[in-house]
Amino acid sequence: MQTQWNTFEADSEYIAGTYKRFPVEIVSGKGSIVRDRNGKEYIDMGSGIGVTAFGISDEKWAAAVEEQLHRVQHMSNLYYTEPCARLAAMLCERTGMKKVFFCNSGAEANECAIKAARKWAAEARGADCFTVVTLQNSFHGRTLTTLAATGQDHYHELYRPLTPGFVSVPAGDTEAIARLDDTQGVAAVMIECIQGEGGVIPLQREYVTQLRRMTEARGILLIVDEVQTGNGRTGELYSYMHFGIEPDIVSTAKGLGGGLPLGAAMLGEKVKDVFAPGDHGSTFGGNPVCCAGALSILSRIDAKLLSEVREKGAFLARFFAESGIESSGMGLMMGLKTKKNAADAVKECIDRGVLCLTAKDRVRLLPALNIPQETLERAAVIIRDVCLK
Ligand SMILES: *Cc1c(COP(=O)(O)O)cnc(C)c1O
Fold first, then answer.
1. How many Cα atoms sit within 13 Å of 277 on the Cβ side?
2. How many angstroms separate the alpha carbon of residue 182 from the centre of ligand 1?
3. Among 67, 86, 241, 313, which one has the highest count of C-beta atoms within 10 angstroms of its own C-beta?
C-alpha cells in the first residue's frame, strides 16, 4: 500500500540535518505574500534572507529569466555570453569598480575576494603579507576559508583546522590592525558595514572612514562584504555608499540574482588585473539565466526605488520607536530588540501570519524592496504586538 506523501517526514528522513525548519511548507506566493500547503497566507518579511529582492515570482524578473531560459540556459566560461557581460558592465558603471568575477553564492564571492587580496598582496608587498583581518562578530560564509574569516568562534569549533592567515579584531580599533601590519603584514581588511548575522549592527561612520584612510596609507586592501547589505537593501545600491568610501573589493550575492544563485566579487582599480587565465574559475559562475534575472533586478534598483527603501525603513524605525521597541539597521535591513526571546517572537509571528528572521538575540526584518506600504504596515502591527506581548 502506498503511503501518502508527507514533505515534513521525507525531509527529516532524507535531508541532512543542518537546518532547524519551522513546520511550514511554502508552496506558492506573489510579491510579499506566500502561501503554505494548507492555504494559509503569510506576509514575507524575510524574503528568503534578503534574496527575493522584488518579492516572490516577480513578473518582470520571471519574464527575463524565462526568455533567457529558452535561448540558452548554460554555457561554460570557455565562451562568451551577453547577459554576464552586460551585468558586469552595469555593476561597474554603478559602483566605479573595474572588473567583476561571477560565482554562485556569498561565500564564494568572499573566497574570490580573499584570493584576489592574497595574490595582489604577495605581488605588491611580499609573499609573507597574507593575513586577512576581519571584525569580531562578523559573518562571511560557511566554507572553511570564509568560516576562518568569520569572527564568531562558535561557528569554528567543529571544523578545525581552518584556513590559516585570518585574525579578527574588535570593531572600532584601527590601531590593532596597524600593529598587526607592523608585525606580520596585513593583505586586506574585510568588513560588513552593517553586521547582518551578528545582530544588524552598523559600524560607526568615523571608524569606517578612519579604516579606509589607514588601509589606503599602508597599502592594505579594503574588502567590503555586501552579500547581505548590497543591491539596494539599505537604501543605497551598496551600503559602503552611505559611508562615502571606495573599497578595493566588494563582494555581493543574496539579492543580486532576485532568487537565483548568483554571487559577484567586484575588483577596484588597484586589483582589477590581479587575475590571469587559470588563476580562478567557476563552472556555473556567470550563468546566463541568473545574470538575465539580475539585470532585471539591478536596472530597477534606481534612485526612486532607493528613496522608497529609505522611506519605508524610516517608517518602520519610527513605528517601532513609538511603541518603545529599539531598532537598528538601515533601509529595509532592520534588527529589533525584543524583551522576549527572538526565536519565540518569530514563532508567534508565524502563527499570526508573518515570516521574520532572527539575528543573534534580535528579530531581523529583510522584506522585499518593493513591499507595498499597506502590507508593510499590516506586518509591522503584528510584529509590534508580538514583541510587546
Ligand atoms: C549570507 C552571507 C554570506 C554567505 O552567503 P552564502 O550565499 O550563504 O554563501 C556571507 N557574508 C554575509 C555578510 C552574509 O550575510
1. 2
2. 31
3. 313
